[in-house]
């Protein structure tokens, strides 16, 4: 008869102490970083070897009782399928680990109004030490601020919460100057169907800079950045329209492939017949042929600032808001304006 499998149980500090032949207090000192001169390096190494052999992981719940701090930060985003958010999460987790914290992802459905309550409840219940909310509306930020809980807003500029985000003006101005220098005076914009400030800011920054240089946005279309068929349909309609332009500016890199496809269907070459500029500098931008000229949104820098700000708020500080400069990455999709436009 097969021996019954014993139920799993977590390895404890007592198990490590028994194997290393030390007291449990010595194990606690080693893994709390407080051993100092109280534990010899030889003994500390024996404790670490025993822990590795047993697969021991320090109990964060026990540490929480001593410090009153939960080493987990929630990152609430709207659409986890978007590459930018995947990159933001990856970099945030790396930065948090450097500070002995972890980051967990919390998704929000479009139109969901209860996500702020869910986030607040997770903090109140002790599951999260604090949170980073990406792209809350003004009303949502006000609701989170009213709780008095440690929450940071990404890509929202106001007084409700400590904020981190991008300054779109430098990068969009560079894009405008590049297009004007190449002789483009009329451009079209293919935008995401999203009225959040992060998109409104980038559109306004480009339009203002291009207009100041004597250029004009002659056509605008809106579509979904995550529905490729819808984006292709919108790009086709834009290129088939009566308005004249020699370049298309996409407010999200994800829309650029739709413009490429619509142009190819008409026998137009990018950039010889139609220049294209994106926003984001996603990995996709380098993979396209030709490689996309785009305004870089540094996800790693945003993650670093967001985690640092969140940890400051958790420590009852009120960090100043941070706005990160954007910059143009010039690749292969802008050329001299085609004679006569389209």
How does this model look, in words?
The chain is an alpha/beta fold. It folds into three domains: 13-67, 434 Repressor (Amino-terminal Domain) (Orthogonal Bundle); 72-166 and 299-325, Rossmann fold, CATH 3.40.50.2300; 167-297, Response regulator (Rossmann fold, 3-Layer(aba) Sandwich). Helix content is 44%, strand content 18%. It is built from 13 helices and twelve strands. The chain has a six-stranded parallel sheet, with helices on both faces. α5 packs across α13 (299-314), α8 (168-181) packs parallel to α9 and α10 crosses α11 (256-265). The protein is elongated, with a radius of gyration of 26 Å. The mean pLDDT is 90.
Number of strands: 12
Largest sheet, spatial ordering of strands = 2-1-3-4-5-11
**Regions with pLDDT < 50 over 5+ consecutive residues?**
none
Describe the biggest sheet?
6 strands, parallel
The CATH class of the largest domain is: Alpha Beta
Beta-strand proportion = 15-25%
Structural classification: alpha/beta
Provide the CATH architecture of the largest domain: 3-Layer(aba) Sandwich
Radius of gyration (Å): 26 Å
Question: Number of helical runs?
Answer: 13
Q: In CATH terms, what is the fold-level topology of the largest domain?
A: Rossmann fold
Which H/E pattern describes the elements? HHHHEHEHEHEEHEHEHEHEHEHEE
What level of helicity do the residues show? 40-55%
Number of domains: 3
Mean pLDDT across the residues is 90
End-to-end Cα distance: 81 Å
The CATH superfamily name of the largest domain is Response regulator
Overall shape: it is elongated
Protein name: LacI family transcriptional regulator
GO molecular function, one term: DNA-binding transcription factor activity
Domain HTH lacI-type: 11-67
Organism: Actinosynnema pretiosum
